[in-house]
Amino acid sequence: MRNVILIAPPAAGKGTQSELLKKEYGYEHISMGDLLRQEIAAKTPVGLKIAGIIESGALVDDDLTITLLKNKLQEIKGKHYCLDGFPRTIYQAQEFDKVLGELGNEDYVVLYLDLNEDVAYKRIAGRLICSCGKSYNIFEENLKPKVAGICDNCGKELVKRSDDNAESFKTRYQVVLDNFGPIKEYYAQKGKLKIIDVDRDVDLIFHDIIEGIKND
Ligand code: C5P
Ligand code: MG
């Protein structure tokens, strides 16, 4: 299977769809947001530097992000992967192609998960996550946990992400407005871009993602 890049506004379901790609097709799921949050959790020098930035919803320095990603790609070399949450700037997109050139595999498809701002915000407002990676939405009947506040999968307590609030959301969505136009154009010109409407059921979206990967 081809490597996949998922770009999308916040709460479009990048993580959910990546986990399905992992489960059904053996993809390595590389979440840029998770790589950054792991640095924070481990209190590394990088983590201490970026904690406030992530909390505010702003973007971490491009070169720092690219270095973390490059290390991860080296670690999983030879495996097929889906990249979630990267690139978020045109510079990241261009540098990524250089890194792939060095690593010797430049084959990928880009899927843009399209969602409007109001729906994205509604999802953010209702989202609860578990440390096992599963996420829920308390406002949607089929996405609620069976027992309020508890993960169906592992029984741990669900929490709200610290950047899932109105103020950070505004900043995160502004990042989309400021950067995603040029990114989409960059990939469209390369003939690598596909757009998928994600204001639909998870299964329908996943079906289109698989079609997008296969029919290239
Ligand atoms: O993708 P996710 O919503 O998990 O990203 C969380 C945060 O991580 C972003 O709001 C941003 O602060 C940071 N991030 C970044 N650059 C990326 C991906 C994520 O700065 N390429
Ligand atoms: Mg995510």
Set out the fold topology.
Blueprint: E1 3-7, H1 14-25, E2 28-31, H2 32-41, H3 45-56, H4 62-75, E3 81-84, H5 90-103, E4 108-114, H6 117-126, E5 127-129, E6 135-137, H7 166-189, E7 193-197, H8 202-214
Parallel strand pairs: 1-3, 1-4, 2-3, 4-7
Antiparallel strand pairs: 5-6
Helix pairs in contact: 1-8, 2-3, 4-5
The structure holds cytidine-5'-monophosphate and magnesium ion (MG).
Count of distinct strands: 7
CATH superfamily: P-loop containing nucleotide triphosphate hydrolases
The radius of gyration over CA amounts to 17 Å
The third-level CATH topology is Rossmann fold
CATH architecture field: 3-Layer(aba) Sandwich
How would you describe this structure to a colleague?
The strands form two sheets. The chain has a five-stranded parallel beta sheet with strand order 2-3-1-4-7. Strands 5-6 form a two-stranded antiparallel sheet. Helix content is 50%, strand content 14%. It starts with a strand and ends with a helix. It is of the alpha/beta class and 216 residues long. Strand 5 (127-129) and strand 6 form a beta hairpin. Helix 1 packs across helix 8, helix 2 crosses helix 3 and helix 4 runs parallel beside helix 5. The chain has helices at 14-25, 32-41, 45-56, 62-75, 90-103, 117-126, 166-189, 202-214, and strands at residues 3-7, 28-31, 81-84, 108-114, 127-129, 135-137, 193-197. It has eight helices and seven strands. Magnesium ion is lined by residues 14-15, 31, 33, 84-85.
